[in-house]
Q: What sequence folds into this?
């Protein structure tokens, strides 16, 4: 069950963080520091969406995540309205970890989403993926 | 109309009433009837042009009634080519206007069709039958250039007789239907766009986070309709729910 949403100041479009980084941003920065892989997170409230995997694939292409050098990008997509998610990994990562890894990750993620705030659950997932990426694609 | 039926109709045609209105279907309330008779009489005195009105019910089309009565009544007109017969079949909701050759140029078939479509039918369909009759008569007077129309005397006569509601005919029902359809369509489109805006997408990267504009979401939706879902060729992934 999700906790109530924490309050934060609204952001205009842009990339810089002025306040205390959110759990998700902390996790993403951990990945960026430790690995050459790129992880992104996309959160939506589209109540009419029927195919989270399809949406994640379109986002993966739209944000140019297939253009990493080692093909090691990962996208985490969460739809809070339909309570569904998808995790997409490029071929470099997928070859390194295999499908079982993602299946296990999905099971843990699902449990975390039920047990804690969605931001914390996403952060845990990103930390987990980041740890794996740091082993497989370390940043020198 | 068959020759026999026309002949039968012709046999029934009475002499033209003194003031030109044979209201068999009782479409004119008495004050309007008197006002119309007054207007027709004044117009004939001023112009020698005879206008007559016939209202009927039953199965005989208004066009046939107008034609038969025009043929018969022009025999006693001061100037036979300059006659008009306005016929209405109350049961069928039909209006016909038959003009003599002298007035045909000023009241051609196209103009009569326009009067029928824009004045008579909207009022008739709205249940305002006497109003349909009065507006039609005044429009005919206007189109043939009657002095009673140009000096608004016809309008004043009917208003003194109690005519109210203005002189603009009702909007044609078909047009109103189209307007409603356009309004509903516009509302549906607005609701759709609002729902897309409310999706509230947020994208996180290591550099920071930003809200994805609704326009980008709409563009992605259009892209999906046109090109379908991309396939995951070489990567991997998983989906789930909670």
A:
């Amino acid at each position: 069950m999700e906790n109530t949403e924490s309050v934060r100041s609204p952001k205009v479009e842009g990339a810089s963080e002025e306040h205390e980084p959110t759990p998700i941003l902390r996790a993403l920065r951990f990945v960026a520091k430790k690995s050459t892989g790129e992880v992104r997170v996309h959160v939506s409230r589209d109540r009419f969406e029927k195919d989270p995997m399809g949406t994640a694939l379109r986002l993966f292409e739209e944000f140019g995540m297939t253009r990493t050098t080692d093909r090691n990008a990962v996208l985490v997509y969460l739809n809070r309205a339909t309570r569904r998610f998808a995790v997409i990994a490029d071929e470099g990562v997928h070859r390194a970890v295999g499908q079982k890894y993602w299946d296990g990750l999905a099971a843990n993620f699902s449990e975390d989403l039920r047990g804690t705030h969605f931001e914390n659950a996403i952060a845990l997932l990103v930390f987990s993926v980041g740890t794996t990426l740091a082993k497989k694609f370390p940043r020198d | 109309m068959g020759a026999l039926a026309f002949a039968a109709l012709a046999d029934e045609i009475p002499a033209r009433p003194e003031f030109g209105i044979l209201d068999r279907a009782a479409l004119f309330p008495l004050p309007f009837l008197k006002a119309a008779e007054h207007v027709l009489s004044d117009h004939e005195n001023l112009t020698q042009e005879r206008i007559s009105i016939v209202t009927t019910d039953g199965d005989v089309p208004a066009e046939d009634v107008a034609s038969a009565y025009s043929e018969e009544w022009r025999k006693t007109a001061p100037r036979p080519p300059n006659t008009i017969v306005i016929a209405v079949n109350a049961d069928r909701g039909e209006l016909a206007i038959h003009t003599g050759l002298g007035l045909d140029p000023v009241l051609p078939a196209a103009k009569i069709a326009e009067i029928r479509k824009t004045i008579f039918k909207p009022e008739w369909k709205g249940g305002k039958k006497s109003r349909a009759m009065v507006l039609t008569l005044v429009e005919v007077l206007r189109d043939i250039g009657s002095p009673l129309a140009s000096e608004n005397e016809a309008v004043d006569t009917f208003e003194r007789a109690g005519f109210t509601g203005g002189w603009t005919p009702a909007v044609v029902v078909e047009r109103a239907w189209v307007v409603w359809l356009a309004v509903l369509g516009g509302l549906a489109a607005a609701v759709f766009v609002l729902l897309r805006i409310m999706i509230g997408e947020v994208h996180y990267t290591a550099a920071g986070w930003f809200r994805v504009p609704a326009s980008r979401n709409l563009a992605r939706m259009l892209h999906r309709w046109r090109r379908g879902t991309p396939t995951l060729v070489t990567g991997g992934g998983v989906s789930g729910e909670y």
In short: Chain A touches chain B through 61 residues (CB under 8 Å). Chain A has five helices and three strands.
